[in-house]
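Researcher: Please generate the 3D structure of the following complex. Treat every line as part of one assembly.
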Amino acid sequence: MADYPEPVRELTAALRRLPGIGPRSAERLALYLAQADPSFVSGLAGQLTRAREKIHACPVCGVLTDQDPCVICGDPRREAAMICVVERATDVFNIEKSAVYRGLYHVLGGKISPVNGIGPEDLQVNSLEERLRHKTVREVILALGSDVEGDATSHYLAKRLQSLGLRVSQIAQGLPVGSGLEFADELTLSRAIEGRRLIDQESL
Amino acid sequence: MADYPEPVRELTAALRRLPGIGPRSAERLALYLAQADPSFVSGLAGQLTRAREKIHACPVCGVLTDQDPCVICGDPRREAAMICVVERATDVFNIEKSAVYRGLYHVLGGKISPVNGIGPEDLQVNSLEERLRHKTVREVILALGSDVEGDATSHYLAKRLQSLGLRVSQIAQGLPVGSGLEFADELTLSRAIEGRRLIDQESL
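Model: Done. Output below.
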C-alpha cells in the first residue's frame, strides 16, 4: 500500500498542529498546496516567515504590532486618559472593530488562575501600574472575559487600581445583541437585570 | 479604528485562498502563526516550499510523487497486468488506503465534459493507450466518479479500450458500507440492484 510522498506527509503533520485543522483538512490542504501554483506557495511561505519575524508585542501596551510603538500608542488623536485592559493581544482588534472606543490599551497576557498557578506577578500588572503612575489616565476599563477567572481578575485589578485614585469600570455583561431570552442562561440574565439602564424619557 | 498589522493582513489574505478556509479561520490562523513558536513557523514555511518543489506528477502514471518513476510504478511486486484509471492524482491514495488493489494506476487528469469544453484530447488518454500497447496489461479498471461526466468518460474509455482487445471493468456502484436503504437515492439503489451478486452457497 503506497502512502503519500514524504514531503506531503511532513506538510500534513505540520498543518495538523494548527488550531482548528483536523487530520482530514490537513491532508486536503497539503495535497492542494503540493499541486498549487508555485508562486502562490512560495508567496505564502514568505508571508508566514515575514509575519512571524515582524510581529511582536508593543513594548508599551502589548498589542500585536510590526512597529514601535504600535499604531494605537503612537496615534496622538487617541484619548490618553483611558486605558482598556484586555486579556489577549488579539482582543484589541475585536474591540477596534466595534469602532466605539478611542482610548489606549493594555494587554495583561492572561488572567489570574490559582488552579493553573497564575498569579498577578505572571501578568502585565506591574507594567500597567507603571503606566498609570506616569500618564494622565483618568479611567481604566476592564474588558476581560466573563468567566470565573476573568471576573476574579477584574475584581483584583479594580481593588488594586482604585487604591491609586483611579476610576475603574468594567464592560457590561448581558444579553448578546440579536439574541432572545430563550438562549440566555440564568447567570447572563441575572447580570443583564443587575446591569439594567434607565431609559431616558427624552430619547424616546 | 486600528486594523491588524500589515503582515497579519497579508497572511490572512493568502490563507483565505486555501480550500475550506473561510475569512474567520484565515484570521484565526494568521493570528496564531504570527505569535507561534518561530521554529515551528519557519519549519512550516520550509515544508511548504519543499513539498511544492519536490512533488510532481509521475511521468509514467501521473500519480503525485517525489521520485521518478513513482513508488508504485517502480515496485516490481505490483501486478503489471492491471491498470486502474482514476480522475485525479489524489484518488490513487484513497484506493491505496483500501489496500485491496495491487496493480498500477493511470491518472486521467479530469473527465470528459462537453459543457466545459473538455474532450478526450485534453485528458491523458493517448498516454494511457500508449502504455497499453507496450505493456502486458490484461485488464483496465475504470475508477471514475459516479456522476454524469464520470459515467460518460467511463463509457467512452470502455469503448475505445475494448477495441484494443482488453478486458475493461468499472468499479461497483451501490450502497455505501455502513449506510441504510433510507439514505440512498433511487439511482444508487437501481445501480445497487443491477449490480447485485449471487451469494455463493459455499461461503455461507
